[in-house]
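Possible regression after last week's pipeline update?

I re-ran a chain I had predicted before the update to compare outputs. Posting the input and the new output here so someone can diff against the archived version. Not blocking, just want to make sure nothing changed silently.
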Amino acid sequence: MVTQLTGDLRILHAFAESAGQMCVPLPGQIDTSDNVLQALGEASREFAELCREVCADMSDGEITDNELDRIETARGALVAGLHHLGETIRARNLAAKPAFVRLAP
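New output (post-update):
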């Protein structure tokens, strides 16, 4: 599959959008580096971007198809950012546990 060979997820995202869905990375499939504050800042930025988009698009009291697409894109980015934040926090939690606990299934 082209997406797997190139790592380009645009086709996958377009397919998901056409089906009224969105893609969220699975745990373990994204960078889970232990930088909780950076992940929190990124999720906060994504939330602010969603708020900015919704407020700007609502200025005339209507939501066009293009505006809806931009809102959905911003919403998806926020979901992904929150997912990454959760994974980063889980990794921090696990790192604080004794080795025998971390190895348990």
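Follow-up from reviewer: compared with the archived run. The two ends are 32 Å apart (CA to CA). Marking as no regression found.
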